[in-house]
């Protein structure tokens, strides 16, 4: 509805970071058909015709970084939980594939095991409930890889509520202020993995051009 409102205002270009690219594909196509160039940031539309340009983050690389860090910290031995983003979108699939591929590559003996992998929808409340269920099912967890720093706050709360924050450590994605503060403090939250911070600026500059 927001993009539909923008189309009616006849702007020269629209820059959008979709929550779910597939869901926004029809209205992005409508903008393109109206002669309004659409610049997509990070989450692919279902068809290339829905955008004039796309600025992508290296989501596969995010998963690679996370798996490399966990493998090094755990010496390729232990149980890992993955809290994914929104199921079915390119961001989530790439972050998972980079993670699983790299664990197999870096820890080929199978000592580092992914014991649970569930979507948390990039939502702190969903992250909380998903992690609560996993904590009940898994008695031995060494690390948690979450796909998003904001969602991770719910995961952190679940771990602390269960009194298991000394048992494991957690990583996120995005570099939020809360995550950076907790990493600096030390303890449960150990690391977060980032895009190039100029992505949004690049998209706006593409619209200008």
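-> sequence recovered:
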């Amino acid at each position: 509805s927001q993009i539909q409102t923008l189309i009616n205002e006849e702007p020269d270009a629209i820059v959008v970071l979709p929550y779910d690219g597939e869901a926004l594909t029809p209205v992005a196509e409508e903008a393109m058909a109206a002669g309004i160039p659409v610049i997509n940031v990070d989450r692919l539309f279902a068809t290339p015709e829905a955008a004039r340009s796309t600025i992508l983050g290296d989501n596969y690389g995010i998963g690679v970084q996370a798996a490399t860090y966990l493998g090094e910290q755990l010496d390729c031995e232990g149980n890992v939980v993955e809290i994914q983003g929104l199921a079915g979108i390119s961001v989530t699939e790439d972050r998972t594939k980079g993670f699983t591929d790299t664990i197999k590559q870096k820890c080929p003996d199978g000592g580092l095991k992914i014991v649970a992998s569930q979507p948390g929808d990039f939502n702190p409340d969903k992250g909380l409930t998903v992690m609560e269920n996993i904590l009940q099912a898994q008695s031995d967890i060494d690390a948690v890889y979450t796909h998003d720093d904001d969602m991770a706050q719910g995961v952190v709360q679940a771990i602390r509520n269960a009194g298991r924050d000394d048992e494991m450590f957690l990583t996120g994605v995005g570099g939020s202020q809360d995550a950076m503060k907790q990493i600096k403090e030390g303890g449960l939250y150990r690391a977060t993995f980032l895009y190039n911070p100029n992505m949004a600026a690049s998209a706006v500059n593409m619209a200008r051009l």
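The chain has eight helices and eight strands.
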